[in-house]
Design goal:
Layout (H helix, E strand, L loop, with lengths): L11 H11 L3 H8 L4 H10 L2 H15 L3 H9 L2 H11 L2 H22 L1
Keywords: Ubl conjugation pathway
Protein name: U-box domain-containing protein 14
InterPro entries: ARM-like, ARM-type_fold
Length: about 110
Amino acid sequence: MRLLKDPGGGMVDEALAILAILASHQEGKVAIGQAEPIPTLVEVIRTGSPRNRENAAAILWSLCTGSAQYIKIARELGAEEALKELSENGTDRAKRKAGSVLELLQRVEEEVNS
């Protein structure tokens, strides 16, 4: 996660692309989750380049799928606003991933309120 916090380091693109691949597998999700990634991913979604925002949204979606804990953390960090903006102004893939995470956030909120 340290590489993602160093925008001048030049490794952010590569690190996010690799994490997106890893997050698509259960073992990768577990390993990424141990690094407490949600705050960093939400920040990248807010401020990153289009490609980085896309990969961060993909990672966030992978982590939040099946994890109410990650969804709760993302919501507490204000991910919903950043994801709404990304779903309107991101790349096609970023729009899809952001929309999918927003659906997860909405579903959990509906379950809590019912």
